[in-house]
Specification:
It is found in: Cell outer membrane. The protein is mainly β and 355 residues long. Helices cover 8% and strands 53% of the residues. The protein has one domain: Beta Barrel (Porin), CATH 2.40.160.10.
Length: 355
């Protein structure tokens, strides 16, 4: 009898332990901290509002925006996972928070992921930002396609987004009930769902060495008076990869009446990169913006050399010249404005560390 009780006790303990282990395996979770710290010394010509004067400064976020974040995932079983990302942008030169001082201004979302894709809620990149980074050879460096259109790295508040990866095909869609909550009455207004609204959809596909992408983005004014004003972007891109060589081509058409007068413009770009050796990569890009029914245009030429000191640390040299025509006043960087019709040169030498 005693031996039978001992045997039953051992079996019960084994069953409970097995159940606990199975439950623990089913509910595995992980949280990862990550980040990028990027700083450099920049020279910019014709940096004044009248086109005079040069600027010399320490600058943050040159080959990549400085950031730190937390990324988490929990296995819920049945192929489902709970996911979240909290990502803060900051300026190395001042230590201040970017994105208007938000704590997690780059990303702040939570969602569910499964074999069918993932659905996330919160502050997130728009579809252009998700899909087009590989389609710019400078990969959204401070001198890049962003010098012509910052919306390629647009971030929206109050967003629900779907992303599905199906082999070589990726599908994305998003809806924002108000893309900028810092504007008083600019989002999620009762009875006025169009105020601050942004929608987007896109697809990318890879066939062998060739990749392609299509994206549509639309956003409305951030007040009751401008809720029916719309800004639309249609973008397409190609990427060709052959060993150490990459070539890209892209186009974006912008149609909008958020500003007065209304805007119609075309943006074209070509780029290439080549890894001369595992540690050294050269990148080049040409970007041109033409404003329709106007003589205003701007063309920028960008070169970048990146040398890897390790898997986590790069040093780089980045240069660009912006040729403004008519009344165009694009700066070499998205945060720099030139005087109308005045060209501008920018050079940055810096270091980037990934952790």
């Amino acid at each position: 009898m005693e031996e039978t009780l001992k045997k039953m006790t051992r079996n019960l303990i084994a069953a409970v332990a097995g159940g606990l282990l199975a439950s623990a395996a089913q509910a595995q979770s992980s949280v990862t901290m990550y980040g990028v710290v990027d700083a450099g010394i920049e020279y910019v010509s014709h940096a004044g509002t009248t086109g005079s004067g040069s600027a010399y400064r320490v600058k943050s976020g040159n080959s990549a925006a400085s950031r730190w974040g937390l990324r988490g995932k929990e296995d819920l079983g049945g192929g489902l996972s709970a996911i979240f990302v909290l990502e803060n942008g900051f300026f190395v030169d001042t230590g201040m928070a970017a994105q208007g001082g938000r704590l997690f201004g780059r990303k702040a979302f939570v969602g569910i992921a499964g074999p069918w894709g993932q659905i996330t809620l919160g502050r997130q990149y728009n579809i252009l930002g998700d899909i087009f980074i590989p389609l710019d050879t400078t990969r959204y460096a401070t001198y890049s396609v962003l010098s012509h259109d910052t919306h390629f790295s647009g971030i929206a508040d109050n967003t629900i987004k779907y992303t599905g990866n199906f082999g070589n095909l990726t599908l994305s869609a998003m809806y924002s009930a108000g893309y900028d909550s810092t504007i008083s009455g600019g989002s999620e207004v009762p009875g006025a769902p169009r105020v601050g609204q942004e929608i987007g959809a896109g697809a990318s596909y890879t066939a062998g060495r060739l990749g392609m992408a299509l994206v549509y983005d639309q956003r409305r004014g951030t007040s009751l008076a401008t809720a029916n004003s719309v800004e639309r972007r249609y973008a397409a891109g190609l990427i060709y990869t052959s060993g150490p060589f990459i070539a890209v081509a892209g186009y974006r058409y912008l149609q909008g009446d958020l500003a007065t007068p209304g805007l119609r413009s075309d943006l074209y770009w070509l780029g290439a990169s080549y890894s001369i050796m595992p540690a050294l990569t050269l990148r080049a890009g040409i970007y041109r913006t033409d404003r329709r029914a106007s003589d205003d245009s701007a063309t920028s030429y960008t070169l970048q050399a990146v040398y890897s000191l390790s898997k986590r640390t790069d040093v780089f040299l980045l240069g660009s010249y912006m040729d403004n025509r008519g009344r165009s006043k694009f700066g070499v960087a998205n945060a720099t404005t030139a005087a109308p019709g005045v060209g501008q040169t920018g050079i940055i030498a810096g270091i980037k560390h990934i952790f």
